[in-house]
Structures are given as structure tokens and as C-alpha cells.
Amino acid sequence: MSQQSEQILEPVAFLGEATGSLFLYEPGSIEAAPFYEALGALEAEQAAAEWPFVTPGQAREAFALICEGIVSGVDDGLTDEYRRLFVGPAPKAAPPWGSVYTDRECVIFGATTLALRAWLREVGIQGPGNGKEPEDHIGLMLLLMSWIARHRPELLDGYLADHLLPWAPHFLGVVQRETQHPFFQGLALLTASSLEGIQDALSLDVTVPRFYR
After folding, report:
1. Which residue among 42, 65, 120, 130 is least packed, with the fewest CB closer than 10 Å?
2. Distances (CA, A) of 204 to 2, 10, 131, 191
3. Closest by alpha carbon to 206, among 144, 154, 149, 162?
4. HEC assignment per residue over the chain
């Protein structure tokens, strides 16, 4: 990794931690509370100017939607939409696992999960999560991006190019298309724009797979 690339490691780590937690943890949960509190207190224009890897215009659009979505705080509407998109019990509008989109059978614990699991074993990283959640959950993978940037930066390019970036933009497009809530429109837009900016900053070549959903 070049010296220029090393300078973006902390912004990458920050981005992964902030966005990953919002995808992984249900609104209103103890784990998510600090992130929603921070979003509720932010000034959208300033946040847009300081957010890494995206243009101010992209960030302003995303933060305007995010702030609109939590103007009343973490309410039932936000939680209900999170569950509708990512949890169920009804069929999920935007399942948060990579293999649902890249596996011909559209199943969890599919090829994308197994490839990531094998890579984690190969490089000696304990899989993220509690072992019950597939490793290719978007929230877990963004948090893993953060951890790798801070602790195993030599692995970052390969992790992004081979495991996260091939499917994450497609998933985030599904979220933007399916969501009925401005918060998740903004979160998906901000995350997608940020990942695109990271890919450009690191000059990564990414092979896009066939998507089945």
C-alpha cells in the first residue's frame, strides 16, 4: 500500500464503523444509540463538507435525507422500516447478505459467504459477528472493513476488491429502490457514494458478478 493510500486508512475505518453499525443494529438498540444520537445532533451542511470520499453535493443530498428521516428521533416508523427491509418476519425487501444476490439460489450462507469465510481463515482473522449471522452481512462487512483498515491494512485492497465491492453497490441500489423511508434512502446513497470514492482512491479493479436478485 502506497503512502498516499495509507493516509486514507483512518477515513476508511471511520466510514466503515459509522455506516456498518447503522446497517447491523436495529434503531433503538443499545448498540446503535450512539450513532443515532450523533446523527440527530449533526449539522447537515457541515457534515457534508467533512464527509470523506464523496463530493459535497452527494453528501448534502444524502445527509438531507438522513436528517429528514430522523427529525422525530428514533420512532416506530424508522424501526418498522428497518425490519421490513432487513429483518422480517415478512419477506425482506432488501436482504443484507451478499450471497442472496450472487448465489443462483438466492440463499444465505451461499457462495459469497463461503468465499469470505475461507479468506478469513486463510489470513488468520476471526469471522465477524457471533457465528450465527452470515459473515457477508453488509453491516458486518463494513465493520470488518474498519477493523482491517486499522489492524491489517495490507489486506484492505484485496478485501474490498474481492469481497465487499463486487456486491455492495448492487445491494445499496436495492435499498434505495425498495425503501419507503428517507433515512434509509440517505444511508444507502451515502454508503454507495463513499464506497465508490474509496474504490477510486485506491484504484481498485473490481469484477462485478452476475446478480440473481
Report:
1. 130
2. 13, 18, 30, 17
3. 162
4. CCHHHHCCHHHHHHHHHHHHHHHHCCCCCCCCHHHHHHHHHCCHHHHHHHCCCCCHHHHHHHHHHHHHHCCCCCCHHHHHHHHHHHHCCCCCCCCCEHHHHHCCCCCCCCHHHHHHHHHHHHHCCCCCCCCCCCCCEHHHHHHHHHHHHHHCHHHHHHHHHHHHCCCHHHHHHHHHHHCCCHHHHHHHHHHHHHHHHHHHHHCCCCCCCCCCC
- Can you tell me the distance from the alpha carbon of 44 to that of 48, in angstroms, rounded to the nearest whole number? 6
CA distance 85 to 146: 24
pLDDT in tens, 134-190: 999 999 999 999 999 999 999 999 999 999 999 999 999 999 999 989 999 999 999
Q: At how many degrees (to 10) do helices 168-178 and 138-151 cross?
A: 140
Using the CB atoms, write b or e for 29-50: b if 16+ within 10 Å.
eeebeebbeebeeeebeebbee
pLDDT of residue 41: 87
Distances (CA, A) of 144 to 12, 53, 153, 156, 197: 11, 18, 11, 10, 18
Residues 6+ apart with CB under 8 A from 80: none
Tell me if the pTM is above 0.85: yes
